[in-house]
Design a protein that fits this description.
It is built from 4 helices and 4 strands; from the N terminus they run H-H-E-H-E-H-E-E. The protein is of the alpha+beta class. Strands 1-2-4-3 form a 4-stranded antiparallel sheet, covered by helices on one side. Strand 3 and strand 4 form a beta hairpin. GO terms for molecular function: carboxypeptidase activity.
């Protein structure tokens, strides 16, 4: 009888070892074994003094800024693209593409090469980025943004732009010196630049 108990005990121990081993191997192969996590010793942290953020002035509504005033237009969100066909040394063609919600393929008309050349020259005058907010437009996009029926944007002869940190009237004056037609938008601090053909 003693032998029988010993044999049963050995079979049970072997079964437990086999089951435990197979569970371990299965979880090991699946990559789910976890190393034990030991608590890290706590370090004393000294709180940093908090510096309150300066309050931003509240604008009383849309007023026409005084001459020389600058609205802090942001640069485009990252990432700034640097691949694709170039319109000129500092501008990608995509910067001039129609920004509609997919009504067109982005190019309802070609951009005027003379406009591209003069906007590049304008960028070189200030030696800092100039942001194109609107280049060529399809008819539907032109209506959406309130453009006039015969807008030069429709034929690729116009671009709306601004230069961060530079007053819109200074940008307009430099654009006129380069031979561009300019309409200033002081309430929004940007300039519409165009080539008449």
């Amino acid at each position: 009888m003693k032998r029988e108990h010993k044999r049963i005990f050995m079979i049970l121990v072997a079964a437990v070892v086999i089951v435990t081993s197979s569970v371990f191997l299965t979880s090991f192969q699946a990559g789910t074994t976890k190393e034990p996590v030991f608590p890290k010793p706590q370090q004393e942290v000294t709180p940093e003094p908090s510096i309150p953020e300066p309050e931003r002035p509240v604008s009383p509504g849309l007023e026409t800024p005084r001459d020389g005033a600058v609205i802090d237009h942001p640069l485009p969100e990252d990432p700034i693209l640097t691949n694709g066909p170039w319109a000129s040394a500092h501008f990608l063609m995509d910067e001039y593409a129609c920004d509609c919600a997919g009504y067109c393929d982005g190019w309802p008309a070609d951009m005027d090469p003379e406009l591209l050349e003069k906007v590049e020259a304008l960028r070189c005058v200030f030696d800092q980025p100039i942001i194109i907010t609107s280049g060529v437009r399809c008819k539907r996009r032109n209506v959406e943004v309130g453009g006039i029926e015969n807008s030069w944007h429709l034929s690729g002869h116009a671009a709306d732009l601004y230069c961060p940190g530079v007053p819109y009237d200074e940008v307009a004056a430099a654009a006129r010196e380069l031979g561009l037609g300019v309409i200033e938008y002081p309430d929004q601090q940007f300039d519409h630049c165009e080539i008449w053909h």
